[in-house]
Amino acid sequence: MAIELVNIGASPNDGEGDPLRTAFSKINNNFVYMQETATNITSSVTLDDAPNQIVFTYPTNAFTQAVFKMKSYREGTNDSEGAMLSATLNNDGNGIAYTVYNITSIGVWLTTYAMDVSGGNVRILVSPLVDDVVNHFISYQVTWEGDLGVGTTMTSEGGAGLITEFGNAIITTESV
């Protein structure tokens, strides 16, 4: 789903814009879309330099792709590190392709990053480079393209309908 623009016509009251019902349906759909793709935050702590410590998990059945911004830091020092991760779940849900980019560091390098799929969850793993407590602040936006469920109300330019089938970006509706 993408943001739907309300047609406001070429000039005020020209009769070319969306009817009120259609306009407000688009607005409601935009709020649903924004809620589904909102940025969330979480934090985690690693306690020593053991490799592959889990700092984030997310269920694979609600994950298609995501963008993560990570800040790792040691309290009481100026040591901090920032990284961005971009991830896409494999079609079979058993693996993930990811890229770590935009890494910046102040002071001592603190960690390396990895991702995997285990136990039905997408995970971010870190391997600390220091034997110390490292805090990890994670902001993330996960998007998911999945089944909305039969009978979900949907509105469009042509009017309201019920979703009767959803798959491969094809939506079939029936009039109500």
How is this structure best summarized?
The protein is mostly beta strands.
In words, what does this structure look like?
The protein has 176 residues and is mostly beta strands. The protein folds into three domains: 1-36, no CATH class; 40-143, 4-oxalocrotonate tautomerase-like (Immunoglobulin-like, Sandwich), CATH 2.60.40.1680; 147-176, no CATH class. It contains one helix and eleven strands. The radius of gyration is 22 Å and the shape is elongated.
Straight-line distance between termini: 22 Å
User: What order do the SSEs take from the amino end to the carboxyl end, as H and E?
Assistant: HEEEEEEEEEEE
What is the global morphology? Answer: elongated
Q: What's the mean pLDDT score?
A: 82
Based on CA atoms alone, the radius of gyration comes out at 22 Å
**What's the name of the CATH homologous superfamily of the largest domain?**
4-oxalocrotonate tautomerase-like
Strand elements, count: 11
Question: Which blocks of ≥5 consecutive residues have pLDDT under 50?
Answer: 147-157, 159-176
Largest sheet: 5 strands, antiparallel
Second CATH tier, the architecture of the largest domain:
Sandwich
Identify the strand order in the major beta sheet.
1-8-3-4-5
| Range of strand content | over 45%
CATH class category of the largest domain: Mainly Beta
Q: Bin the helical content.
A: under 10%
Please tell me the total number of domains.
3
Structural class: mainly beta
**SS summary, helix count:** 1
CATH topology of the largest domain: Immunoglobulin-like
